[in-house]
Each structure stands twice: as C-alpha cells, then as structure tokens.
Design a protein that fits this description.
- By secondary structure, this protein is of the alpha/beta class.
- It has 2 domains: 44 residues, no CATH class; 292 residues, TIM Barrel, CATH 3.20.20.
- It contains 15 helices and 9 strands.
- It has a 6-stranded parallel β-sheet. It has a 3-stranded parallel β-sheet with strand order 8-1-9, with helices on one face.
- The N terminus is likely disordered.
- Bound molecules: iron/sulfur cluster.
- Iron/sulfur cluster binds next to loops.
Amino acid sequence: MDMPSLVFKGQSIFSRKERLPFLLQKNGVKSMECKALIDKLNAEKTLKKDEWIYLFENYTEDDRAYAAGIAQKLSIDKYGKRIFIRGIVEFSNICKNDCYYCGIRRSNSCAQRYRLNEEDIMDCCAEGYETGYRTFVLQSGEDGAWGAERLAKLVCQIKEKYPDCAVTLSVGELEYDEYKLLKQAGADRYLLRHETANREHYQKLHPGEMSFDHRMNCLRQLKELGFQTGAGIMVGSPFQTSECLADDMIFLGEFKPHMIGIGPFLPHKDTPFRDEPKGSYELTLFLLSLCRIMLPNVLLPATTALGTINPRGREEGVLAGANVIMPNLSPTAVRKKYMLYDNKICTEDSTADCRYCLQARMKSIGYEVSITRGDYSE
Ligand code: SF4
C-alpha cells in the first residue's frame, strides 16, 4: 500500500499543494496524518499554520482520543492525578464594554446589575477557605466603581487574612500602572482571555471602540509584571475559522501563558449573537488536549462552559488533559445575574455543595481535589 512517510522532523508534514489531493483520495490516510501531526506537536511543541489548519479540518474522533491520551499522560506526569480548585467570586456584573457575545455587555438592558462590596467579598473568601479553597479568583466586568486602587486594597486585605492563598484577578483591560499597583498589592495571577489572535476576527466580536492591540498589550504587560498570566478563547465563536484557531494556537505557543481558559461559545439570548450556534464540545476537548501537548506545564481549566454544554464536560475535560476546576464562590443570590451565556450551571448550589459535588465527580474518574494554591511550575 502506498503510505505517506510519517517522519517529518523539522519541516511541514506535507506541502499542501503536492500532497493534499493524494490525501483526500485515501480513506484513513487523513487520520494517519492527523496522528502524525499530533506526534509532531508532542515532539517539537509547535506546528506550522497549514498543519494546524489541516488538523482542525480533518481530525476524527479517533484522533481526538489519541490526543487526549497523550495529553492526559502529560498532565499526570506533571501534576499527578490532582485537580486544583479555584473559587471564583463574581463581584460585579457591571461592565463599560459591549462585546457582542457577552450576556453582561453594557447594552443588555435585561441584565439585573449588582456589585458586591468588600465585606461581601471577604465573606465569600471566608466560606471558600473553610471549604478548602486556596485560590480566590476575583472576577468582574470592567466596572469603574471598582478601580485599581480600591481593588488593590482588597487584595492586600485578602492576602493579610489568608497568606497561604493565591489571589487571581480577572477584571479586564487596565493600564500598566494599574496592573503594577495590583501586583504590588500581592495579586498572584491574572486571567485575560485574548478571545482571538486574529485581528479581523477580533473586530467581528467587538465594537469598533475596543482594540485588539490594547488587549494583546495588556497580556504582555501582565506577564512582564510577573503575574502568572492566563489567556484563552471561546471555541466556535461566530466567524471563527480554522485559520483563526491556527492563529490562536500559534499565539499561545509563542506567548506561553501560564494558564489557558478554553470553553465552547454559548450564545446568550440578549446579545447580538443570540441566534448563533453553540461551539463544538468535541472540538473544545480536542483543543484542550492540543494545548496540554504544546505546553505541558500549563494550568488548564475544565471550564464551567464545558460543564454547561455537556453534563460530563468537566470530567471529560480532565480526561482530555485539564487540571483545574473553577467553581463559584459568589453568594447564590447573585449567581444567576452573572450570566455571560444562557443556562450556566451551578447557579443554585451552595459553596459547600459545589465543592463536594466536584470532589465526587473527580473521584469518579480517579482524581482527587488538591487543597493547595496550585501554582504554575516549570
Ligand atoms: S466579555 Fe468582559 S469586557 Fe466584554 S462585555 Fe463581557 S464582561 Fe465586559
């Protein structure tokens, strides 16, 4: 049988022009090529743009399982069968921005707005600490009433009370001096999904007043300031193509974030994207595996969105290479109001219920929840 060679060290696995017609005629050969690309990614930690595109356009369920097997092994080699938990406090759903995909965008007049104060947030942390969380993630829209100075004071307060805990911030785009202030206050990590590394795609997801360059600059500044920095995307966001995903993987491979947040796009009924289809569950799992293979040490959450699109999403995310889960610590009274997308799970369970539900879910797949900060390590 006329098989393609699978040894392609240091060069593109095929010249698209020469080999693609041949590949398309051969049953099963595409899958072999995909596996060879996954092996190449594992060996070299990078692929070329046309290789990424080929992979996204041709992978099969078998290839996805193959990638998941490698990714899960890499995750266990690095972090063991331990899952780090992060308690998220969604402290304000007020946002000055108008991202087209987001349920709490400023133009959504149906959103019931709320803002927690310092005392509320400290109460959430106290409950979280009791139930075993050693990382608090403070997340909000870009809410001017919670400026960097106020937030920095809160970070100091949390770090003083819980010196064994990490504080992660996820409050959007700020200026360099503001990030610096937050770092000096003791914040350890910062999550800022880049959303897309493709400029044209970015412009289709955001109004003209928002800047792709500013967002990317923010990420660079955060890393430079010493934050453990998280980037990430929604899989299947409107107008996303294989080329966009290839750009994302190339960006992530070069930027080397410490954390990558990847979840499926889920539409929200009160946004311009209300009628857009959900992102693919399987492609999200595949991307999680590819991220783990490319960056074996990365902290990789099995996101709430993954658990929303599929009841076993978080378990299968872990089996695909994820090693972090981020349950909600917000007061149940406000959880339903922080709806970035429709039908978000875990909006009614108490902090303790969420915590023990996750512990049982992880146990069911042979993993345990780790009561540690769960820092990134090389
Ligand atoms: S995605 Fe973030 S910045 Fe954009 S509208 Fe929603 S909360 Fe605001």
